[in-house]
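Lab channel / #folding
Pinned by the channel admin:
"Please post every new chain as: sequence first, then the structure tokens as a reply. Keep commentary short and put observations after the output so the thread stays searchable."

First post following the new format, from NK:
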Amino acid sequence: MGTIGDGRLKLGIGTPYVDGVVTTGPAMREYAQTVEACGVESVWTVEHVIEADDYEPRYSYSATGHMPARFIPMADPLEILAFYAGCTSTITLGTAVMVAPLHSPVVLAKRVATLANLSGDRLVVGLGIGWQKEEYASVGVPYADRGARLDECIDAMRVLWADRPATYHGRFVTFDAVHLVPPPPRPTIPIILGGNTPPAIARAARVADGWYPHAMPPDQFAEAAAFLRDEVRQAGRKPEDVPISVTPASASAEREMDVDWVQQYVTHGATRLVIRPGVTSPDGVGAVRDKIDRYREQVLDRLVVPDLP
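Reply from TO:
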């Protein structure tokens, strides 16, 4: 089966962060091979290095400042994608997102380049700055200036991937005449950026190869997407240079299959829809095929994809 979509609208799917699935090789192999066989264009991972027992409630996607679930088995995102790469051949592999300032840009550039090579150049790197102060403290990185750290991470990695030798002088990372060997298949690897705030959206418009907001309802998405397009044009770029991936946000699982609800995201510029896996146990991995088929028939095939404004 070919990739689902008409070329302008892609279908991605998340990773099932469930004990017995994400922690078990055979279940993850079955999952990855099933979604690829179903024609899904991409599969996505997320990151939290740790979760504090009693964190400061700074989670901006809920009214309480707390995450909706606790202690999800959130395995390392790049390690999962490396596993997926070894048991698939065509599906795009993406992070949405990694908390970039928690990592050394040089080490991250090396890991990403390695995975890009071994996967056959199928990698898309989604980056963000996160929100959990305790997570930053646990790896010894100051919470302040995390936006500036993200900026330097992007710049430094791109220099390492493209230049021979590579030199970069920033506030947080510096190197002179170094070689990242082996380099990635191409001089750059696509970087998309998360974040719902105006500074995060403006950053995506200036420097990213895509934008992936989180848990954004349709009315907010419409405003944010319009703001993104304005910022893209001010940066001298075109809207198609910064495509939008989105998981249509709703507290109700039924909304995911509501074509009118999803249409709002597509109308306002989403070009990749990433659905939740809907897997709750190892026994349910095979059922993802039914979900993908239903989503294609009930939603994807009925959506109207407009031209970019």
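NK: The CA atoms of residues 279 and 287 lie 8 Å apart.
TO: also worth noting, Residues 10-302 form a domain with the TIM Barrel fold (CATH 3.20.20.30).
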